[in-house]
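Exercise: predict the fold of this chain.
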Amino acid sequence: AVAASATCEASDPRPHADDRLLTQALLEAAVGDQILSDYQALVVRTLPNEKAKRFRNYDAGEAPPYFSAEAMRWIVRHDIRHLVVDLPSIDRANDEGRLTGHRIFWGLPAGGRLASAATRSDATITELAYVANEIPDGPYLLNLQVAPFVADAAPSRPILLPLSAP
């Protein structure tokens, strides 16, 4: 993540100077020459990636990073249907209820609340997923295992299965 003051990428509400953002530029650099149109899911592991992250109290101490609006638009442009992140939210913790990143991802207008208005209602976001350092970056098959709840949120158990190179 980069300091909000070090990038021209933003979100709504406007980031505080000490906020840390996951930007489109960072995602592009991390993905490299991978062709995202070949994939339906993107797993984002932030650094540092210590095991203590699994039990961290995100309400205490430094606020966690979150995705810029540009990063979320980039993810949507690449037709990523399933986003798995190790953060408590893709949006800033105190964003006045705007949930800009979530709305962009699901194709809802700013302030939109009706799931029926979402243009990407089949898309999923998994937050607080821990991806161990022993799992190398690269392409995987994602077995998401979403619980069959009818709600705006449901637990999932993402499992990454390695793909062999062709």
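Check your answer against the key: The mean pLDDT is 92.
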